[in-house]
Amino acid sequence: MQECSVMKMGDPCAISLTYRYRTVREIRHQQFRLNMSRDYELYNVAQDDPQLIAFLREIHMRKYPLHPFKTHTDETSGSGVGGAHVLVGIDQHLNFSAHPNELTPKMAYFVANLLNGKANGAVIQSLTGTLGHLMTAPWLSETLNWAALIIEPEPRRYFTLRKQNALRPRVQVVHACVSPNSYPKEVTIHNEESEVRINSLLDEETSWFNSRVKCFPLYTIMLASSRVEYDLLSLGVHGHELEILQTLPFDKVKIEVISIHLLEDQEDVSKYMTTLSKFLQTKSYRLLDKFGRNYFYQRQTTTNRTRKKDTLVLKTP
């Protein structure tokens, strides 16, 4: 084989090395893209595995110090003394009293009234993509002092939520997704205009970098938060709500209200919700009300069933 010592433009050696370099680089690039598009599913890891719980708690649920977000001095307001420093963007998204008839305030008030204005409750919520504006957890925490756990897979949305809730000590935002399986996995997030979809499909035409996210079973997230009793579980995760609920060991958790939130463009809603309602019925939950494509179920205890029966008797002439 001819040795290449001093190479000049157009020399066979230079052309050969350039071609070889580009080929190796392209292969490595394609392998990288392939690795970043695969789902890594840890089938053998149980959702109550102590090491998995410790990993989630110490890495993804670590308490971060309050960062010095940009503040401004409210000089025009008459309230406060000397102009208070206000965290930009903190309260604008919670001004429910100014828009009481909008969907999110209606649902927040509905849950609060359903639980008789309970204080110091707990909510766990994951509403991805365009469903994010329906989030009631911050209001419940701010108004009723609830402990709120918000699960957000999209990185930019995660940091926005952290900033919005930076001054709410009982609100914790976790960068993760809820696994539709009873084991953890790592998947690729695909941004499609305003929607964020979690899947393993590789788009060969996509030139930008898609981020990765770790998904944990809902029960694992509950155990990592040291709480298995919640007043509200709120899920809106692109049609994976039923799969997520099916992973829950309902004999080991206690959830008073479950809300399901569907996208406007989701198909076969009637069939899907019928199946989901039948499943929840086997777990002693009853559909109470719905607001558009937002459905609320309540756990039926012996007391609830008795009260319902008494009410029916009282209405009988």
TrEMBL record:
Any single Gene Ontology cellular-component annotation: plasma membrane
Source superkingdom: Eukaryota
Cited Gene3D superfamilies: Vaccinia Virus protein VP39
An example Gene Ontology biological process: endoplasmic reticulum to Golgi vesicle-mediated transport
Residue spans crossing the bilayer: none
Family matches, as InterPro entries: EGF_Rcpt_Signaling_Reg, SAM-dependent_MTases_sf
Protein name: Methyltransferase FkbM domain-containing protein
Species: Glossina austeni
